[in-house]
Amino acid sequence: MKAAKYIILVLILTCMFRAPRPVAAQGTSPMTPPSQLDLLPVPASVQMQAGRLPITGSFSVLVKNYADDRLRGGIARMLTQLAGRTVLAPTVVGALRGLETFLQLVQGDRNGYYLPGIRIQDQPRFPWRGLLIDVGRHYEPMEVLKRNLDAMAAVKLNVFHWHLTENQGFRVESKKLPKLHMLGSDGLFYTQDQVREIIAYARDRGIRVMPEFDIPGHSTSWLVGYPEIGSAPGPYKIERGAGIFEPALDPSRERTYKFLDTFLGEMAALFPDAYMHIGGDENEGKQWDRNPQIQAFMNAKGIKDNHALQAYFNQRVLKILQKHHKKMIGWEEILHPDLPKDAVIHSWRGPASLAEAAKKGYDGILSAGYYIDLIFPASQHYLADPIPQNSTLTTEEAKHILGGEATMWGEWVSPETIDSRIWPRTAAVAERLWSPRNVTDVDDMYRRLSVISRQLEELGLTHEKNYEMLLRRLAVSDDTAPLRTLASIVEPVKEYRRYQMRPQTMLSPLTGLVDAARPDSETARQFASNVDAFLSDAPRFALYRPDLEHTLAEWRTAGRALGPMIDRSPALQEARPLANNLSAIAAAGLEAMSYLAAGDTPTTEWRDAQLAKLDEAAKPKAALEFVVITSVRKLVIAAAELPQLRSTTPVEWKKRITTQAMPGDKLRGGP
Amino acid sequence: MKAAKYIILVLILTCMFRAPRPVAAQGTSPMTPPSQLDLLPVPASVQMQAGRLPITGSFSVLVKNYADDRLRGGIARMLTQLAGRTVLAPTVVGALRGLETFLQLVQGDRNGYYLPGIRIQDQPRFPWRGLLIDVGRHYEPMEVLKRNLDAMAAVKLNVFHWHLTENQGFRVESKKLPKLHMLGSDGLFYTQDQVREIIAYARDRGIRVMPEFDIPGHSTSWLVGYPEIGSAPGPYKIERGAGIFEPALDPSRERTYKFLDTFLGEMAALFPDAYMHIGGDENEGKQWDRNPQIQAFMNAKGIKDNHALQAYFNQRVLKILQKHHKKMIGWEEILHPDLPKDAVIHSWRGPASLAEAAKKGYDGILSAGYYIDLIFPASQHYLADPIPQNSTLTTEEAKHILGGEATMWGEWVSPETIDSRIWPRTAAVAERLWSPRNVTDVDDMYRRLSVISRQLEELGLTHEKNYEMLLRRLAVSDDTAPLRTLASIVEPVKEYRRYQMRPQTMLSPLTGLVDAARPDSETARQFASNVDAFLSDAPRFALYRPDLEHTLAEWRTAGRALGPMIDRSPALQEARPLANNLSAIAAAGLEAMSYLAAGDTPTTEWRDAQLAKLDEAAKPKAALEFVVITSVRKLVIAAAELPQLRSTTPVEWKKRITTQAMPGDKLRGGP
């Protein structure tokens, strides 16, 4: 890792504090406890100190012992975000990461903006903290990349993994092989000037840019212009579907390697990063199986299967990269006994394969667990660790684990929606890769995530503001209230089920309710927490009762109001069953609460009817699923089981309800 | 105007219609009345026809007799907005403007998307329909310009007037005189490549790009790098304040003209438009008065005053422009007996000066009445006409009136807020310049404006979505409800009062409540309309009563909730008096309504106390003013005047109330 341009920094931010203002000096000096700080990622060490530093109009930043254009740029950006409010501070601000920490430390109250008294010592746990953006399946304009680089810097990520080529698009200009981008991209590609602009923009923010050219599979778009390097005669067309496709480069012909030498050589000169990612994933070798010339080549060389053939290909590519002074990194499929030890393994299947590679002496990075395109909640990504607690790696072996990358695969994201798929959840991954391993408090992570989410918005990220925009477009109205209520408690279906339930092509609009809806529903999380508290308050059932009744009534109102809205909007037709489900969910919850409040026990018929309605509501529609079903089911079962409360403890009773509310069919009904 | 690249087009959009769907054929065929169409600007002629054309998955566009890259690009953009939904239509789509009309015609209901049966004949009333964006005072990034060009095309504007230089910034790269942009811009300028990119982007959308280089005043930023062409020795610094400043080019020295020849020649080659705007406004000549060398020059040449000196300067500049094959346009100050007739006059003071110029034989365009930076409502801009009803121009003279331009002066706009100052109000100006003079129904304009506003958002305009973002930042919370309620009924103070009330520099943050608040409050307009209807319903007082009570109660709730929110946010401290006013306004309105509902008459003391509170609330604070005061005042006065209702007609009674509610002090209390 010596050649990689990652930054390890030790930052000591010490401020001289002015005397507290009189109002704060009267024994009520506001001393912010560390647990209340909104830092993300959490630093390695934080000590609170007395006093506070007001940020007034005379703020300025003094840099001692160190100055370069990049740091000056970083300070200028920080001051812009601080919005002109400034403080005379005899401070050495050590580096860009520290500036981001500083920005997150700024607090405000009726006396103005201030910094808490604090001493922070910090360094990253892993040197490789990345975000992959797949611009192959859907092209993303320059400003999308730039604002995401801004966001990466804000949470201390330092590797932008630019997945530039896919079956569905070849997105980088090649001056030497121009049919690559001209025929393989629908005109949606980055010029070399634009690539340099992104690299400079990233560098200014302390971020490396590592390109990926995915070969030998995932290469349909290459073959549109150059079918002669494919394993079947062609002609080829840009792929419009989603999935795994057959086209693969021909590993048996010298012209393929000559072509790659030309292309990768050109890219090696364009991208200064020490690493080049060659993909290498998901090649099933079907074209190879059917090509007699390739089969003859394998026989002649004694290559026994497709995995070995790909290993041969990888070694040839490795030599090309070495010639151009690049280190090779590839998806874990490249792991093979013949793979040289200076290749880096990128794990997408799990930390076990990463550990296996580390034991063999390979450096590696983890993306399994960080597949943000699969719509899992931040909590799940947050607890995935490149070196899990039960790891059997020695200290030396563990050093091979360089870090990880969140992966934004591009099947179902447009420039309008991509931010909401990346943020704020990727901040949780960023914290996992930066902060000490024992920082694992999920509730506190979510608390800080919502603060950081707003700060990311200040940088221009659109994950919040495009939500309302998409809803307005669907509602054909400025009054989106009922649709927003529905959208707040549904999530897109997880993993790869969206495509199965609602097939689309890469040319389809990404403007449906499934595109507006977001992962990790905060409303559902809050509702679940309130229901749990309410049931724990047995037999009084007073805790959070007004909140819950208010929420359920809002769902009922929205369920009714959605009908006329859907009538007006062709794009919302698919949401009609969800609107009906919403009414049913609200009714079940409200009736259950009224039984509990009155101390009455409903009939078995009522219970069965409600659970049947909830089971129906739990089935995904329009590639969306309600994420409050388990909580409402708890209310229904609690009402039905009320008599049992008299013969058991509230704790036992609640446990019984919770068990029944979690059906064995793995329908995910709550976070 | 022969040389100007404006487009006059006659578009006939005729569709062959499929048989109506069975559901629509049962005598209930949906025939959209023209008044219900959401077109903006309104076409010259619309005839509704029977039937509707469903837009299904097989939609495509067939172009006959005409094809070029620009039209193909326009069709591709339209199809993207149509989001992949398509129809086989034996249609000739004649031009880009027609495509925009087509997009606005698409409607939807539960049976899907469709086009109404329609025949449209259309052409613009004026050939010059512009938007000025001042990037001098605040720089606007490329994407801001691009999205605004998209929006201009959507409402058929065809001139982007790029105000590139100001006292506060010189925003275009000069390769021949590089100190202009290097020392005059803080590094915030457009490279010549970027200028070409904007010109190409605009041209693809049928928009001319006319640059403005404002001279001899408004030129401080020029003089930072080249003080030798100034009228005082310097040194000069980039101006950070707002207002009119003294620096002016020296009209008495040949080196000034040599400099301008070099610079304008370079720009003439960069900008293909036939016109070049030389500004010429607001030069008070103070530097000239104090410069003995200039005074000596005037004596020698027999130039009697500064106006004549500027006329001399203009004629010299005109010759330079002619040499570089450009026509000159300037602000109306350039009008002078010696001004050649092929110069164009840009009026910012009013249509009278425009008419005067036309009578003298000058072409002219109007911006007076279209100063969108002054925060007046769309209705006001909408009714300003380049050729008013009472115009005394002959038909021949009227031909000199080429059109007009909305002007987005840049003192108080950032990339985050500029869209909300331009849109949707500029769409009303666009309609004035495109549609027949007799299209003046303000209510219908507002109805269509809200539809177009959402469509502009689809193009990437941020006027809607940044509103919530700015409120979230101020509230330091995702829950902005009470702040949104307050913001929905206040507007920034009008004209140039913002700077007087809340002085800032060009480096100050534009993130206050005054920046989040928007012109032309829709809530206030609706409230005013409901109050009028409610009072017309005397003595029953039932019409809109629940709506009004609901609204007033929401204000009361928000007034209470704002206190704790303001405590947490230093940036909201200035809003505290507004929060108190909000509570007072709500209480006055609710109490008045309860008197009216009960038929009780309040005491005179009550009336006086309420009116005093409303007078206090009507005073602007934080450069914001409530725009619902007049309506609430009407309610209070109506309650107090209830006895008079028995001795007069409801109409007379309401008139009496309205008169009393409009105070003579010109406090604008309602739209």
What oligomeric state do these chains adopt? homodimer
Q: Provide mean pLDDT of chain A, rounded.
A: 87
Can you summarize the main beta sheet of chain A? 8 strands, parallel
Computed structural class of chain A: alpha/beta
**Radius of gyration of chain A from CA coordinates:** 28 Å
Low-confidence stretches of chain A: 1-32, 88-95, 665-671
- Percent of residues in helices of chain A comes to 40-55%
Distance from N terminus to C terminus of chain A (CA atoms, Å) equals: 38 Å
Most extensive interface, chain pair and sizes: A-B, 36 and 37 residues
Structure summary:
By secondary structure, chain A is of the alpha/beta class.
Descriptive overview:
Chain A is an alpha/beta fold. In chain A, 45% of the residues lie in helices and 13% in strands. Chain A contains 28 helices and 18 strands. In chain A, the strands form five sheets. In chain A, strands 11-8-7-16-15-14-13-12 form an eight-stranded parallel β-sheet. In chain A, strands 1, 2, 5 and 6 form a four-stranded antiparallel β-sheet that branches. Chain A has a two-stranded parallel sheet with strand order 3-4. In chain A, β7, α4 (142-154) and β8 form a beta-alpha-beta unit. In chain A, α2 runs parallel beside α3 (96-105) and α8 (254-270) packs across α11. The longest helix of chain A has 24 residues, at 545-568. The interface between A and B is large, with 36 and 37 residues.
